[in-house]
Amino acid sequence: MSTELSPQAAYHEVIELLGPEALKDKLRQMHLIRAFEEKVDELFLMGRTYGTLHLSIGQEATNVGSLGALAKGDYFLSHHRGHGHFLTWSDDPNRVMADILGKATGFWRGKGGTMHIADVANGNLGGNGIVGGGLPIAVGVGLSIKLRRSEQVCMVIFGDGAANEGAFHESLNMASIWKLPLVYLCENNQYAMSTPLSKAFNIRHISERAAAYGIPGVTVDGNDFFAVYLTVREAVERARRGDGPTLVESVTYRIKGHSRSDRQAYRTREEVRSWQEPDRDPILRLTRTLQAAGIISEAEADSLRQQAVERVEQAVAFADSSPDPDPATLLEDVYA
Asked: What is the pTM of this model?
């Protein structure tokens, strides 16, 4: 059955679990993602990036809250809108920017572009240009963990559109039968490209589909860092115990279009602005909560934002000074 977490309960528990300094660091990470995405958007308009671009502005609490619940040595699989995931996991905007700008100093040596950044040795198994493409891969990763009798966990992140792919149902079914150590995180940002949730599902919550596979399904406010962190943490603990997968639906919103070519004729400007209000924007919400708790001052919060902007500018300079990939390595890193 799908359940919803009490925001107040999550708030108090996470403050006790993480402590003030760690919470300030989570806000720093969210500022870094926002500043990075805004800069990449600017670079795209300048013709500096390659291919299309999928931004996750507005989804920072889901990015940071979910991946922050994993442990060192765990795995995750991302999707086409994954900059926030890669930045949260690596805290290395230099190398992420280098990949986006096609430079050899990137994680994937500038060959994968914006959608295929990976750092396999450190648990980042990469993004995917195929909608739902990470779902069946996660089953293989989960089976590997189980056969090796490891205590690792793998989280696979996908959008609401991917929840209507056949791979979603096949993956959850197999993972539930074999009790694989997986966490399925659905970033429900309201639209599958231009298709609103109401026209693609006949249920209130995507997490309700978990019942068909005999696993827990939980829906959380994806713009509430505390709710996301605590919910995913519990799902990770369940998987690590050997109790099998959990389907977590994180309800959030993408402020920008599906991609840079999206005219956004399917939604109003008023709707977008409503998700940028202080009670909905994930960064403003976390900032206000930490200020109310006496954990951070307004000056400290402003400093974190400015530091993020500076780090992103440094990342652009790093990428600009980096070499292009050597043409001789064209066929390296190609798998078939």
From this structure: 0.94
